[in-house]
Amino acid sequence: MSQPLTVSLRILDKEYQVACPPEERYNLEEAARHLDATMRDIRNRGKVIGLERIAVMAALNISHEMLISKRQQQQLSGEQQQQINELNQRLDQALARQQE
């Protein structure tokens, strides 16, 4: 197992030091960029004031995005499973006709 490294992240003009495995550095930095962009967007709209409230709204927005994405993936998986089942039925029918 590799030693964790400390990554410096800048989110809404504040610096944070976070430890993570070296192989996860890119994902952590990408997540921080996404969080920073979401928080800046909320702050720039001017309807939410205060770092804590902005952070909570950003967390809610990102959680919502994640849940929608997860549901879409599950729906695709269900559709793909349905297609596989239909193909299996067609194969069963074709094999049954061959045996007649």
Give the helices and strands as they follow along the chain: EEHH
**How many domain regions?**
1
Spans of 5+ residues with little confidence (pLDDT < 50)? none
Structural class: alpha+beta
Q: Which percent range fits the helix content?
A: over 70%
The first-to-last residue Cα distance is 59 Å
Average pLDDT value? 89
Describe the biggest sheet?
Answer: 2 strands, antiparallel
Number of helices: 2
- Quickly name the level 1 CATH class: Alpha Beta
DSSP summary, beta strand count = 2
Q: Tell the overall outline.
A: elongated
Beta-strand fraction estimate: 5-15%
Helix and strand topology:
Layout: E1 5-11, E2 14-20, H1 25-45, H2 51-99
Antiparallel strand pairs: 1-2
